[in-house]
Structures are given as structure tokens and as C-alpha cells.
Fold this protein.
Amino acid sequence: MKLQIALDRLSKEECISILAETSPYVDWIEVGTGVIKQYGVSLIEYIKKQYPEKIIVADMKTCYAGKHEEKKAFEAGAEITTVMAYADNQTILDMLAVAKKHNKRVMVDLLGVKSKTRVEELKALNVDLVSLHVGKDMQQNTQLQVDVFDLVKGIEGLEVAIAGGINLKNLDEVMAKGPNVLIVGSTITSVANPGDIAKQMKGMINHFENNH
């Protein structure tokens, strides 16, 4: 089970400072949509150079022109880029083809998806990595909506990431659902001691895996 830190709604300086404290405990580093919009893909390039051993996720949230956006992210050093599940199938197919050619990956963001049928369609396109996403605007009282896991239940061959409101209190409940990647943003990035929180979370993940 991977721990992915989501860097979003932060300055470049804050991103750098947070990673200096948290990098020993995180597996994947997400350069969030907001910071990409503010600083461009050059920030992806900078972070990859600082942490070459980490998997970099460029949260481009592509909707169309997938090959162009994907190419920019990969050239900057990202191993994974994101596309929205409501994008046209051809956009997703194009991105999967480019990713395969470069030995990279595409994560399909299921934000807004209500029907398991769409997830089954994505799997039929050979999508193998999806993100269950409870958006910031949808989170209520920081409670993660674990019923989002129903979207992927019983669909074989999918690597599943989960994002949205994950914290120390609900981490055990989320891990019990069996995701492959835990995406954590403000729980780590908005506190004075991000390294301590990341260390605690990684410790809980290790403990969970050692006992299951």
C-alpha cells in the first residue's frame, strides 16, 4: 500500500519545504492541479530532480488534448499523469497508448462518476489505475465517504487509489477497504509538523500490512 502526498494549494516554497520533511515516508509525490496551473510543469521537473527515486504523479486532470498534455508531463519527469473519467474514450485510449510507449502510466480520476458501468467501460479500454476521489467541495466534516469503493468492487485488474479527507482517525477504516494507494493532502500539508504526520501514517500502513 503506497502513501501518496498531494501537493496542492501551496506555494513552490511550501512544496519544497514539505517534501524536505515528508520524503522519507511517502512513496509517490503528486504535483497537484493547482500548483501545476500556477507554476507549470517546470515544478514537476524540479521535484523529479530533487527526488529521482520517487514516483511523480502529475495531476493534470486532462479532459481533452490528452496526448499533448501527457507529453508535457512525461517530458518533465512524471511517471503518471491523470485524466478525468468523463473524458472521451478516444482521449483515454490515446493517452494509454502514449504511456505504454514511454513505459509510463495513466491514472483515471473517477471524480463525479456515479455509475459502476463507467468503471467497467474504462477497464474494457485497458485502464489499470483509477483514483476514487471525494473532491474538496464534497467532503463534509472531513469524513471520507467510504461507499465510493462500491464503484470498483468486484472489478478485477484495477489498481485503486483513494483521495479525499483521509486522516489519522479514519485511516484504518480506509485501509480495510484494500486500496493500493492512499492519497493524502491537507492532513499532512496543512500542519506545522508534516513530517511527523507522514511518519505516523506510514507507520500505520506498515503495521496494517504486517498484520493482514
In short: The radius of gyration is 16 Å. Residues 2-210 form a domain with the TIM Barrel fold (CATH 3.20.20.70).
